[in-house]
């Protein structure tokens, strides 16, 4: 069964790009928040950037930008400011909001940051290493 997997950080993206065959063969939909993509580009690793451009061109990883003045953006702002519970950075906050509004699973490389609920929303998480191994 196909899952919508929302990447929470650049580390997850790097691991997926290093395992391109796996993500090409999986039936999952990979969603990369614009905030994570922007941070990734700033790191300027040309080898991984080439893989990312390939994956965008072939719709393997979809870069997703929230529209302002939407419920999705309001939830993002509430998360990033800590109004719904724990405060997260821009990358994680955007990923959480996107996952909430797209019934997605959050992909992480750090199990210490996993929370099961934020506000009234239940979150589903998956560790990137568990995804690659499965």
Indicate the structural class. alpha/beta
Question: What shape does the CA trace take?
Answer: globular
**From the alpha-carbon coordinates, what is the Rg to the nearest angstrom?**
14 Å
Mean pLDDT: 91
Note poorly predicted spans.
Answer: none
Q: How many strands in all?
A: 7
Compressed to H and E, one letter per element, the order equals EHHEHHEHHEEEEH
Described by strand count, sense and barrel closure, the largest sheet is: 5 strands, parallel
Number of helices: 7
Oligomer kind: single chain
Helix content: 40-55%
Distance between the termini: 13 Å
* Beta-strand fraction estimate: 15-25%
As laid out across the biggest beta sheet, the strand order is 3-2-1-4-7
3D structure, described in words:
- The chain has 134 residues and is an alpha/beta fold.
- It is 49% helix and 18% strand.
- The chain has 7 helices and 7 strands, in the order βααβααβααββββα.
- It has helices at 10-18, 20-25, 34-43, 46-57, 71-80, 90-102, 128-133; strands spanning 4-7, 29-33, 61-64, 105-108, 117-118, 121-122, 125-127.
- The strands form 2 sheets. The protein has a 5-stranded parallel sheet with strand order 3-2-1-4-7. A two-stranded antiparallel ribbon has the order 5-6.
- Strand 5 and strand 6 (121-122) form a beta hairpin.
- Helix 3 (34-43) packs antiparallel against helix 6 (90-102) and helix 5 packs antiparallel against helix 6.
- The longest helix is centred in the last third of the chain and has 13 residues, at 90-102.
- It is globular and about 40 Å long.
């Amino acid at each position: 069964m196909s899952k919508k997997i929302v990447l929470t950080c650049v580390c997850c993206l790097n691991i997926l790009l290093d395992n391109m065959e796996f993500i090409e063969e999986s039936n999952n939909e990979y969603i990369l928040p614009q905030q994570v993509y922007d941070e990734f580009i700033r790191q300027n690793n040309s080898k991984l950037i080439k893989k990312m451009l390939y994956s965008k061109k072939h719709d393997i990883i979809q870069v997703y930008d929230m529209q302002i003045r939407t419920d999705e953006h309001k939830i993002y702002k509430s998360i990033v400011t800590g109004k719904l519970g724990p405060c997260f950075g821009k990358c994680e906050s955007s990923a959480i909001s996107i996952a909430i509004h797209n019934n997605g699973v959050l992909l992480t490389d750090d199990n210490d940051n996993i929370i099961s609920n934020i506000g009234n929303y239940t979150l589903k998480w998956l560790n990137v290493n568990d995804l690659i191994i499965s």
